[in-house]
Amino acid sequence: MITVEWESEGLQTVGIVMIICASLKLLHLLGLIDFSEDNVEDEMETATVRHRPEALELLEAQTKFTKKELQILYRGFKNECPSGIVNEETFKDIYAQFFPQGDASTYAHFLFNAFDTDHDGSVSFEDFVIGLSTLLRGTIQEKLNWAFNLYDINKDGYITKEEMFDIIKSIYDMMGKCTYPLVREETPRQHVENFFQKMDINKDGVVTIEEFIESCQKDENIMCSMQLFENVI
């Protein structure tokens, strides 16, 4: 069981870290962190799936993975998702397994929407590896842009206090009894109030991407968290 100790300002980092951690958990459960030396050269060509991925050369150009890494990622993805796509219920099932002491469904919903960049109700292999490439190997700017998109629930270019609360509350709900000490009901709201005040630099009631990036770049904990998993693959 994962236990997280919540400090008074700890949520400043948790929202960012959990984006990356949860993506790695998804990667593990899909069987993608399994870098055996089996020959998978032909799998991209011979696999019979409903959704066929883009050519490896194109994905290699769009991501920061090598051709070999993409082949291995695809093998795991195909084995767990023979249709070639992942739907939202799969995301929810995955996080329910990793966080049985809490309710991960809302966070899984938000994360799914962040990966589903074309908003067609499914995450293809291309969607997944492009998002994963950003989270694991993107620049700080790219990672923060991705995180902003997660928090910007209605995709209007701004983060409101309620949107930030919804994301942070979903993280608390997901962790459930895995936190120490157990949080009080009002704790998520208090943390959001404190953090939002820091991010809303011009005090207009919303956080723009410029304010989000500037605030995060000034936070040493967040900057460290963005580099935790860069060498996982």
UniProtKB/TrEMBL annotation:
Taxonomic classification: Eukaryota, Metazoa, Chordata, Craniata, Vertebrata
Domain of life: Eukaryota
EF-hand domain location: 103-138, 139-174, 187-222
Gene: kcnip4.L
Species whose genome carries this gene: Xenopus laevis (African clawed frog)
Keyword Membrane: yes
PANTHER family: CALCIUM BINDING PROTEINS (PTHR23055), KV CHANNEL-INTERACTING PROTEIN 4 (PTHR23055:SF30)
Membrane-topology annotation of the record: Peripheral membrane protein
Name by which UniProt lists this protein: Kv channel-interacting protein 4
The UniProt record lists the keyword Zinc-finger: no
GO cellular component, one term: peroxisome
Gene Ontology molecular function: calcium ion binding; potassium channel activity; potassium channel regulator activity
Keywords, sorted A to Z: Calcium, Cell membrane, Cytoplasm, Ion channel, Ion transport, Membrane, Metal-binding, Peroxisome, Phosphoprotein, Potassium, Potassium channel, Potassium transport, Repeat, Transport, Voltage-gated channel
Subcellular location(s) of the protein: Cell membrane; Cytoplasm; Peroxisome
UniProt xrefs under InterPro entries: EF-hand-dom_pair, EF_Hand_1_Ca_BS, EF_hand_dom, Recoverin
Similarity comment: family membership: Belongs to the recoverin family.
